[in-house]
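pls ignore typos typing on phone
adenine + seq
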Amino acid sequence: MRIDVITIFPNMFKAVLNESIIKRAQAKNKVKIIIHNLRDYTLDKHRKVDDRPFGGGAGMVMSPEPIFRAVEAIQARCRIKGKGLRIILLTPQGKQLDQKLAKRLSRYKNLILICGHYEGIDERVRQYLVDEEISIGDYVLTGGELPAMVLIDSVVRLIPGVLGKRKSLKSESFEGNLLEYPQYTRPANFRGMHVPPILLSGNHPAIEVWRKKAALKRTKERRPDLFKKLLKRK
Ligand code: ADE
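k done
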């Protein structure tokens, strides 16, 4: 997969993309992540990316020209068009990111992520350039950079071969709308707090049953919305 990010704050991405699993995924050529400075696609000498809103009002609006030019330059370079490519705008007005959406996005060959800013973005970008608008939750951040990083993290770990064991993907939260069961490691008795004895029994079928029950109980208590979905599926 190739992910292109268009941003006015390219430095924000350095730390996140150069650590841990995302770093390793790039080293293993599972994903190529390219950060583009939107100002490189401006045509004026001040490298201006925004302007005052038509009709008046507070704040500034991101101009369409540099964004269109950036996307067109990336498209020309990566030669992936049509179905393999998804152009995404990060905005609180978008569809909320969840595990299902991350999974769908992980199947594209190329994602272009546009990080929004200021009071907003010229509507023609949404209407004529972007395929999909995505939000990471019902709260407003200062820009689309952190949401883009959240999206990248959630998608890259789903690319086959990025995580060591496929098994670890299967049992995690939200796979099948079930939260994770409680996990314990040594010591069995920590300051008088004991690990459930069943986990020390060596009886693996019984452990599986205990884990399934614990996951269901936790889901019912904490996420009744997910629990309802589980019941519906059966
Ligand atoms: N930009 C600002 N807030 C955002 C959010 N919650 N999701 C996506 N993009 C945003």
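Residues 171-233 form a domain with the Trp Operon Repressor; Chain A fold (CATH 1.10.1270.20). The chain is about 40% helix and 20% strand. more later
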